[in-house]
Amino acid sequence: MQKLLSLPPNLIHCFHELEGVNRTDWFCTSDPVGSKLGSGGGTTWLLQACHQEFAPQVPFSDWIGREKRILLHAGGQSRRLPSYGPSGKILTPIPIFSWERGQKLGQNLLSLQLPLYERIMKQAPEGLNTLIASGDVYIRSEKPLQDIPNADVVCYGLWVNPSLATHHGVFVSNRESPEILDFMLQKPSLEDLERLSKTHLFLMDIGIWILSDRAIEVLIKRSLKSGTSDINYYDLYSDYGLALGKHPKTEDEEINRLSVAILPLPGGEFYHYGTSHELISSTLTIQDKVRDQRKIMHRKVKPNPAIFIQNSITQVSLSANNANLWIENSYVGKEWKLGARQIITGVPENHWNITIPDNVCIDIIPIGEHDFIARPYGLDDIFKGALNNETTMYLNIPFSQWMQERGLDWETIEGRTDDLQSAAIFPRTNSIEELGIVLRWMTSEPQLEKGKELWKKSVKVSADEISANANLKRLYTQRRNYRCENWKGLAANYEKSVFYQLDLQDAANEFVHLDLETPDILKEDAASMVRIHNRMLRARIMKLRGNGEWQKEEQAAFQLLRDGLLGAMSARKNHPTLSVYSDQIVWGRSPVRIDMAGGWTDTPPYSLYSGGSVVNLAIELNGQPPLQVYVKPCKEFHIVLRSIDMGAMEVISNYDELQDYKKVGSPFSIPKAALTLAGFAPAFSAERYTSLEEQLKAFGSGLEITLLAAIPAGSGLGTSSILASTVLGAINDFCGLAWDKNEICSYTLVLEQLLTTGGGWQDQYGGVFSGVKLLQSEAGFEQNPLVRWLPDQLFVHPDYRDCHLLYYTGITRTAKGILAEIVSSMFLNSGTHLSLLAEMKAHAMDMSEAILRSNFTNFGNLVGKTWIQNQALDCGTNPPAVAAIIEKIKDYTLGYKLPGAGGGGYLYMVAKDPQAAGLIRRILTEEAPNPRARFVEMSLSDKGLQISRS
After folding, report:
1. How many helices (DSSP H) and strands (DSSP E) are in the chain?
2. If DSSP codes are grouped into helix, strand and coil, which group holds residue 344?
3. Are 30 and 90 within 8 A, CB to CB?
4. Is 397 helix (H, G, I), strand (E, B) or coil?
5. Reduced to 3 states, what is the DSSP secondary structure of residue 371?
6. Which residues pair with 776 in a beta bridge?
7. Partners of 743 in the beta sheet?
8. What's the pTM value of the predicted model, to 2 decimals?
């Protein structure tokens, strides 16, 4: 997906280097110097320039449909936000949100904007290939997106207060058909909105427009001067937009014919970053979005919530009086005196003794190889108007008054005086000491003669010249150097900083790139989750540096996770008591499970800090529960373990043999660990015995446990976890431990930690509990999911029953390696992974809703979406051999997926109808990919785990 950016001219030549992105995926240009094209003309210019750069030999009409593209308009003079004018508002650094995991210390507006736009375009239907958005807004949406209709123009809007809507474009729709645009208005009055509200609804335009290839061609045609290839000024919103809809405000036959759909952005939030005020107010609103202290991960309390410091070294003490203060990429020394409502940017290391009045901002811009420009300004300055006009404000007073207070006459102003933005009033110097003196004179000490002399003798430049000539590489280097010091401070002061909630994969890369010391191992009194993050971060840094000890650190992180999950369970001791007759057999049997949505969100550590949501169902195969366990007394005082399907047997005579359960691949790891948890090993026994033989004598018999897993390994149906639950359930009954099904599931989670295989809770809950279920857990080390049963209509009704197909692919893949990779990313707060997992969690709620409504088509489509999400999380989920099977049958399905971690095992398919199901059966039976591949009959289990006695 290509990104096209319209940027300030000075940024074009170095954007790719500064942002570390490639030129193929990222194209940038700027509007022609001196011309005003508007958002419509600018879109035309940007698309034509990209076409000429990459495929001039291909007709534009063919090129535009080849790939999805995101266009961001981020040029402009930035008069109202001067501090980020040179680098463009779109690259404004944004502080870490106090309540969010997985963000990057170097994040900016662009990196925050892009994920939503990419989500939208991935969901956009074929033919909708171009998304256009503004570079000075941040739009959030944590909820799943609705389906995007196949219209020529699709626009997103927000439900807002009418007073806010009067400052923006508004989409107006008839109450009878709210998804269809009736007409668009630009900045309507409150009276207009009140009059319309009787018959119409209105959404505020948030500047996210998706255009079909046809709509793009019409836009380009309107942007060109008649009969030429020259671009006119043409506005996407006030010109093109007003001609859209069923009853458009302007007549344009070709635009009027375009179909338009209006979508409210689900859970949308809109933050504008167009002015100095908005820089602070929007950031404060985001930070204040979450007030629940349980969700705020650091313990720092700022003296004022509207103080934002990043990429800086600040040595002054701040108080509640320093409200609305923004310090970025700056060195603020001990002798600085700050006030309120200030923006401090770009300041190099200094020893200034300076007082900055309220409402005064400082911006220092590097220019050339060694020089700096001093640009103080007022927070409300708009850099507009003739210098001699009394309404032209500079540093919060008329510019003429500013000159008068400093004893300047008009002859001292060289060049243009008709517009403050173009006036050469900002001094250039190569001395940091002189820079401080002239700043004092320009801001708070107008009688400082030395400052006046320095200003008069210096070369002076305008705001326009600053944007055109700033040395952005020096600006970025200074920011990176300050951030280097910030990394050290954040790591050392982790308890009161955002350090361990950051994207630690990014942090590891930064520590290596900046050659920073690896953070020390945290003490045992640190919070468990923080200690886990610490060890995994250390492991990743060591791995990147080629240090062979990294695996020990990673294992230490996993061990801390196991210790945390064992937690209170490790303190629970059990006293097994023989509870059957000498000739009785306890028989346990369980179905397997298919995860429909939300898989992976149940997996620690994600579920521990975010909670999980999963929809799954318990199924029997070929009419039988495929996992079975038999436990009976044994006359000899030892334990005999048998596996029917694996043809293996082992006799256990001592504790060492019993506790040897960590060997992956051992046929009896599960029963050994289950017996350990049941109290047949010292760690979990309520009584003390000198040997296993002594304990079994006290128990009254030995044990003989026989396992049968009538299902291939690596099936993806939760076999190992559910088998563990079945073993625990049978031993529980045999030994009179009185565990209920929830406790059996909890012990299964602990058992998997003992085996070091890891895993979440959805497998065991999926098999132990019957039917179709929505399973949800809260954050915390004690994961006790709430089980909500869903109706089974879609699975048992004759209209749908035969549409559910299960096919064994004959391809296997072990989940442990997959699990370790993804869990490591969870440990490291990988922003990409956390975003996907949040989507999966929300998706589970959509799946639940579809099942509750008995909407079969929606259910099938959501199964397909689950498969897409699983592939995004792990690219190995859909290997070529599996993809080849899917290719044969996909046109006959609503959705399909490999249950579990994927990569092999079973393929679950939702056929469009019974006839399509028959075609799928015929195709895959006649064209089986290997001798083991076959259909297996699945049926919903209405019993779950069953335990009975002979």
Report:
1. 32, 37
2. strand
3. no
4. strand
5. strand
6. 613, 786
7. none
8. 0.89
